[in-house]
Write a structure and sequence with these properties.
Length: 796
Amino acid sequence: MPRFRQGSLGPRQLLIRLLCAWVLCTALSGPLAAQEAGRDLYLEVFVNGRPMNLITRFTDLGGGMLSADAEELRNSGVLPDAAAVRGEVRLDQIPGLGWRLIEAEQTIRLVVPDALLAPHVLSAAPDADLPSAEEDAAPAVDHGSGLVLNYGLNLETWRGAEGATDHTVSGSFDARLFLPLGALTHGFVMAEDQDGALRQRRLDSYWRSSFPGKAVQVQLGDIATRGPGWSRPVRLGGAMVERNFGLRPDLVTLPLPGFEGSAALPSTVEVFADSIRTYATEVPAGPFRIDDLPLAGGSGMARVVVRDVTGRETQVDLPFLVSDALLRRGMTDFALAAGRPRLGIGSETDRYAGGVFGVATLRHGLTDGLTLMAHAEGGEDLAMAGLGATVRIAHLGTASLSLAHSRAERGEGSLLDLSTQLHLGRAQVSGRITRTSGLFADIAALTADPDLVEPGLAGFPRHLAQLAVSVPLGPGGGSAASLFLSDLRHADMGDVSSIGASYNRRVWGDASLTLTALAQRGVQEDRVIAAQLHLPLGARRDVAMMTERRGDGWRHHVSASGRSKDRVPGWSWRLQADRGEHPALHGSATREGRLGRAEVAARVSDGHRGLGLRLDGSMVAAGGGVFLSRRIDDAFAVVDVGAPGVEVSAENRPVGRTGHSGKLLVPDLRAYEANSVTIDPAGLPLDAAVGVTKQTVRPAHHAGARVDFGVQASAREALIALVGPDGQPLEVGGKVVLNGVDDELLVGFDGEVFALGLQDRNEIRVSYPDGRSCAAGFDYADQPGTLTEIRGVPCL
């Protein structure tokens, strides 16, 4: 048998075996180590001991090293290195940052110096990033369908000094058909012609569809173009697509001021403007930032008060500017229109001119302080385009500059427009300079109706300069003075220069005195000097007196007016006496009610007498009923309560009581905004059941929606008193099953059970936690308007 002998390994063999073992260990442990080092941890974040109420993703790099996304670190309250704008950031590469990972509790406690604390960001208004806003982010709109007819009827009779009598009848109407897809509007007037016959004259007819999610609306039919301040709108018959920010009241379209600060302790921040608190919130300890402060338009100084938990208070003055001439950064406004010009609207020469023209306007907020503009008009023998910009001047105001060029068959021309609105201390200054060269033209100049507009006034003026200055005088704004200058020069017409000044002062408490002077030179000469005194007599009556000299004559008038405490329903009246070339006396009385408005007026002048009656209101067919109402110019709702005589309120203002149908029309609602509608359950019948007493409705513009409160006028309800075999009321707390349905009813005091939806024959089963149970049966007969009580029902 052979023998084997174990000997020692040589150096070469030992090295080979060690290398093989190292490779094998690396191959086995490498994937496990990589998996351990690259895992994601979702941890609750604490910054300097304060919970951030956030779960943030961290990546374990191995060796106790962690990394996180830079944006998530900012949201967690840590400001990473300025160079790390985005992407993964290693925590050990942020100087001064310390942390302790408690993996068992899935938390990470960060120790952050003040220099690395990210500000706590708050917004005082909803997010206004419209370009990235999705359609489903818009609040839902409550659509409906129906018909609305607004009307205004005039009846007048006039008797001359020689006894001749004249009667006139006229009316203005606005008819709308609204559907979930949009609204069809047709406006017209009825008036007597020279032969005394009533004739109709059409005003505007159009279809409009709105898309609130995109803040865009489309209009087909009669349209009116829009553009920058130097452009002139025209009426077209065609189509228009435009942005309408009114469709999204939740969006902030203007650049609003913000405030940055730091609190050593948790604090309350309040913002005051003109001594009125406009915003208040709470902030944690550390740096904070508040965006989109709700401050009124214009320029001014707000006061920010920071008060910590110990009562220590810090006040900071914040200068601000809010101007509708600017758009928020990233916000875009546009309007695109095309069609045939409409001339002589409302007159006998009403018609559509030949040729198709188009208008395009674009505004974009490049930054919060710079808004760019582009405007173009074109059509047959016309090409006009302009560019402009509006810039913010610190906190003083804005300035706009526009340049435009046109080319038409009659020649070429250019336009320069410069305007500004400034707040210099307490003074407000606004000015505009517009100059044209060559034969600058637009759609209005080429399509003006020669029967209605003088040829010299159809084109752009050669030069227009305007300046207005207003300065408050004295403490508390009790008086103010203003100055107005204007210089207008036409190419084919004479020049007109005007200067005007006014002074207003509060006298005798709430009374005010106004002095006015105006002088005009050029083609039209005129000079006016006037003084007016307004004297309130209590909260609902006032008297006004005015004396005026125009040219070579004087004119004086005295008026008195008053109104009732409530506007709707309510009364108002007015008396006025004039003394000038022809003395006159005028008086009117108005009644404003839920069904409409009625006004009676009378006038006596130089032997002539006149008497008139005007009726304003609307007829509405919507929500399953026909209603008479006040004029509806915005939106409305039909409230269905299901019972008559129930009081309905809108925004905490009583509107009226439901009629026999249990419905009521609520006018004067704000389109696309949340309108609160409530009912008073005290007016419901005793046997009625109501689920809610308050609802929110968002109707569309020129449309209405139905609000159903789901009231059951007869809920077949009763109060059932159960007794046991001994004739005593059942104990409190027993579980009740009615007709096999478990509605979580319990036996109350005196064995009473309140039940809804009863049948003619009913079965009740009662059980207690200790195992006791009983059953009862009873008949039910509905008694409308009363609460039925069934007592002494034995439960055996």
